[in-house]
Design brief:
Oligomer: single chain
Helix content: 25-40%
Structural class: alpha/beta
CATH class: Alpha Beta
Largest sheet: 6 strands, parallel
CATH topology: Rossmann fold
CATH superfamily: P-loop containing nucleotide triphosphate hydrolases
Order of helices and strands: EHEHEHHEEEEHHE
CATH architecture: 3-Layer(aba) Sandwich
Number of helices: 6
Strand content: 15-25%
């Protein structure tokens, strides 16, 4: 990161930059942050595929640490799922710590998030000990409040993904509709839940090592 803020990189250079982090015999973790709908999940998946999924890199999404729907209802937080306190942040930190350690002979299993079920799925992502690069993506990797502030020191590098606001909002509405919400309900969810979270996420932009602008 430059003294005046994060560098801005063209998309074509990103695979090479990620590859430089993947040094055999040494575990590194690349974080990809950004607001809901910015394209961070797509970018992370493409990077991992280009590097060699399961051999050189593995994708571990932060979304696997969503609290279960039953727990969100118990806590009275199901109406704002996606906010920082609707995740198991301590669990995510514990996983990152294990991933950094890369204990010889031990495969670490990470959770994933099933969008069809709207639930986390335990033990869905195997991370073999000899994979040099873990790519993790999520909204709050640069968040500076509560336990989230301890995420940044566990990452070797972190990129912030942004895209045009109108494109991002259209993607979000379409995503919610695709997963069962009526268009009006999808737009209200984006306005009342996703957008407040996006504003929170944007506060971390200046703490990133790199800003990636997607169209």
């Amino acid at each position: 990161m430059s003294p005046t803020g994060p560098d801005v990189a063209p998309l074509a250079s990103l695979t090479d930059r990620a590859r430089a982090l993947a040094v055999p015999g040494r575990r590194r973790i690349l974080g990809i942050a950004g607001a809901p709908g910015a394209g961070k999940s797509t970018l992370a998946a493409r990077l991992v595929a280009a590097l060699g999924e399961g051999r050189t890199a593995v994708l571990v999404p932060m979304d696997g640490f969503h609290l279960a729907q039953a727990e969100l209802r118990r806590l009275g937080r199901d109406h704002r799922k996606g906010a920082p306190d609707t995740f198991d942040a301590e669990g995510y930190l514990a996983l990152l710590t294990r991933l950094r350690a890369a204990e010889p002979g031990v495969t670490v299993y990470a959770p994933a998030f099933d969008r069809a079920l709207e639930e986390p799925v335990a033990g869905a992502v195997p991370v073999p000990p000899d994979v040099p690069l873990v790519v993790t993506e999520g909204n709050y990797l640069l968040h500076d409040d509560g336990p989230w502030r301890r995420v940044r020191p566990l990452l070797d590098e972190i990129w912030y993904v942004e895209t045009a606001e109108d494109v991002r909002l259209r993607r979000l509405v379409a995503r919610h509709v695709a997963h069962g919400r009526e268009p009006g309900a999808a737009r209200r969810w984006v306005r009342d839940s996703d957008q407040p979270n996006a504003l929170l996420v944007a506060r971390g932009r200046t703490r990133a090592d790199l800003v990636v602008s997607l169209s």
